[in-house]
Amino acid sequence: MSALLTLESVNAFYGSAHILHGLSLSVHAGERVALIGRNGVGKTTVVNAILGLAALRGGQIHLGQHALQKPRPYSAAQHGVAVVPQGRRIVANLSVEENLTLGAAVGRKGPWSLPEVYKLFPILQERAHTPGTALSGGQQQMLAVGRALMANPALILLDEPTEGLAPVIVDQLADIFQRVANQGTALLLIEQNMSLVVRVAERYCAMAKGAVVAQGSVANTKASLATLEEHVMV
Prior knowledge:
By secondary structure, this protein is of the alpha/beta class. Helices cover 34% and strands 27% of the residues. The strands form two sheets. A six-stranded mixed beta sheet has the order 7-8-9-3-10-11, with helices on both faces. Strands 1, 2, 4, 5 and 6 form a five-stranded antiparallel beta sheet that branches.
């Protein structure tokens, strides 16, 4: 498998605050990887480093064969990486359909279009002309995922996608993530809900103090769930 995303000995900062300390990880084509760890270890900073929102001051980030010398949000999109950000970031004053169309602005060709996204999320079609910020939390998360799919990415970064959502919505999203992955899209899932991780991911990378300290395969067993939960206990 070829690596879609590679971070090698990455050091990332917010101002003078050193957050990522020599972090290394990779995601290959079609792979489903979970990035786990307790709050404050730098998981979201991994995404922000890729997008250029955290300063890269050491190490390398590659998207496929392309080295990001100065990471920028548009660079990720151009190289087939879409982000479902923490907090969803639905654009206010735009309808559901307009928010979805934003995802297609990068112009990448692929299987995902408005009709295909609406098949995956029928509720979004029903509410296509509703302001995106008027949706429920679960519906907004579906909109954020649909917007990412509209970019026809090879890899989606999912930053805490189930935060604050009811268990029934989490179950729906787990099924959707599995369907998306089964169509060949790679996933990097940043998540605290270990039952979701076990359902969706094939491999995990556990973080502590700004670095990956453990990794392995995810098996759908009680033993693996207990092992994963050890890495996110506060």
